């Protein structure tokens, strides 16, 4: 369940991600993850939607400021654009969403970011780290979305939840 942001930066970052060879971006919209993918096939879909719907109006909308790059290497082959404002609000929103029926264990500590290169050769990861080091944008985080994976189309937003 990501916090989704719209053009022009979402498109710019998605296009950049594909330009460095990360073709997974064609099936993954630009986002800040709140909760990792969860198999909910055995769960009641109404519960999966009702929980974030109940959480959203308890969290105030906030500003996100993205600036510069970071990486999770050597632990994970990921280069990202860093969240420099809105970190604690992302953490609070993520914690609220990852409760109740969506309570999941995380493989890593939560760190809000926007992935720009993943599972690529070191040269491509280095290039992404270097080329977007000066990237900067700001936008309002006034909603988040529920995504469902479609085998053909990839991750598709199915419902948006407005923040307070």
Give the structure's gist in a few sentences.
The protein has 164 residues and is of the alpha+beta class.
Description:
- By secondary structure, the chain is an alpha+beta fold.
- The chain has a single domain (2-162), classed as Cyclic phosphodiesterase (Cyclic Phosphodiesterase, Chain: A).
- The chain is 26% helix and 32% strand.
- It is built from four helices and eight strands; from the N terminus they run E-H-E-H-E-E-H-E-H-E-E-E.
- It has helices at 9-19, 45-55, 87-97, 122-131; strands at 2-4, 31-33, 62-71, 78-85, 113-118, 136-141, 143-150, 154-162.
- The longest helix is centred in the first third of the chain and has 11 residues, at 9-19.
- The chain is globular, with a radius of gyration of 16 Å.
- The model has no long low-confidence stretch (mean pLDDT 91).
Brief descriptors of the model:
Cyclic Phosphodiesterase, Chain: A, 26% helix, 164 residues, four-stranded antiparallel beta sheet, 32% strand
């Amino acid at each position: 369940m990501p916090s989704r942001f719209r053009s022009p930066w979402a498109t710019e970052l998605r296009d950049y991600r594909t330009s460095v060879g990360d073709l997974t971006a064609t099936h993954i919209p630009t986002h800040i993850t709140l909760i990792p993918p969860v198999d909910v096939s055995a769960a009641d879909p109404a519960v999966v939607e009702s929980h974030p719907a109940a959480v959203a109006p308890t969290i105030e909308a906030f500003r996100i400021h993205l600036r510069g790059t970071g990486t999770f290497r050597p632990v994970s082959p990921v280069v990202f654009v860093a969240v420099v404002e809105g970190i604690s609000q992302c953490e609070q929103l993520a914690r609220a969403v990852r409760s109740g029926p969506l309570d999941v264990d995380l493989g890593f500590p939560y760190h809000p970011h926007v992935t720009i290169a993943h599972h690529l050769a070191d040269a491509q990861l280095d290039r992404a780290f270097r080329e977007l080091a000066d990237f900067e944008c700001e936008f309002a985080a006034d909603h988040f979305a529920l995504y469902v994976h479609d085998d053909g189309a990839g991750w598709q937003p199915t419902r948006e939840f407005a923040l307070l």
